[in-house]
Amino acid sequence: MAELSDRAYRVVVQDGVRDLDALAEALGRDRDSAREVVDMLARVGLMLVNGEAFEPRPPRMPLQALADQYVRAAAAAREASEVLAEVWSRQMSTSDFLEVVTTTAQAMEVMARLHAEADNDVRALSIGPRGESPPQPSPQPGSHEAMRRGVSYRVVYGAQILHQRNVMAMIQDAVSLGQSARVFPDVPCNLHIADGKRAVLVAPMPGPERVHAAVFFEGGFLDSLIGVFETYWTLGVPITADPRDQGPSDDIRRLLSLLGAGLTDASIARELGVSERTVNRRIMALQDTLAARSRFQLGVQAARRGWL
């Protein structure tokens, strides 16, 4: 039901409202709007109307019938999409496993629909907005709602986004909602895959239509894109919502800064006044502490914690 209809039903049931004027006041609408809401509730079986008077009806059976109706409509739409896709593929030169959208608005709509319709899982590569005059990074529309309804998310972010404070906070918010997030230095594109059945690949374009999108359906290309994601996922460094650390010592901070400056182990050893073996041992200990499999990953994890 629409939000206004839901509110109206609750007011009638919980507050005992039985006339249009009182209902209109409770909803903050005019009398005609209240009448329209009551009539709509009556059409779906949630209200019994007799002239100006109305009474609420038990909701379970009417809403179950309405839900069944939507399920049948969705099944019919899916069946129609398959039939029409077959017609399209017979008559057109393009393939039925690929659709291309060539406006920014269409690309954003396709992305939002992917998240809204995901049932089980979403896998994504993310490098943030691209194209001419891109907007500020923000959560994908529908993604937080999908996580709240139980859809699992695994996302690999390009390392460059860690340089933007607002993006890091945004990622950690998503992780707190249940997203599993990793970071890798050379993520090439924005790619979203829903339920292993559909993928949207977004690419920057010159001109006012700053992005186009390719939508892949089940088939060999989609399988390849899933394989690409899984490769980056394996290589990525985990991001957590709460690092839960007390920060490094001054010696560790200096070691990290020298590493970040690109010095060799021998040069770092001279700067710290220790042996090269000691430098190597300290770096390996830091990698174990921060669950980093490489020095690059060590730098990412240290930067994420604010150690650099």
From TrEMBL:
Molecular-function annotations in GO: DNA binding
Bilayer-spanning residue ranges: none
InterPro entries to which the protein is assigned, alphabetical: Sig_transdc_resp-reg_C-effctor (IPR016032), TrmB-like (IPR051797), Tscrpt_reg_LuxR_C (IPR000792), WH-like_DNA-bd_sf (IPR036388)
Region of interest called Disordered, as start-end residue ranges on this chain: 125-145
GO BP annotations listed: regulation of DNA-templated transcription
Gene3D superfamilies: Winged helix-like DNA-binding domain superfamily/Winged helix DNA-binding domain
SUPFAM superfamilies: C-terminal effector domain of the bipartite response regulators
Domain HTH luxR-type: 245-302
CDD domains attached to this UniProt entry: LuxR_C_like (cd06170)
UniProt-listed PANTHER family: HTH-TYPE TRANSCRIPTIONAL REGULATOR TRMBL2
Protein name: HTH luxR-type domain-containing protein
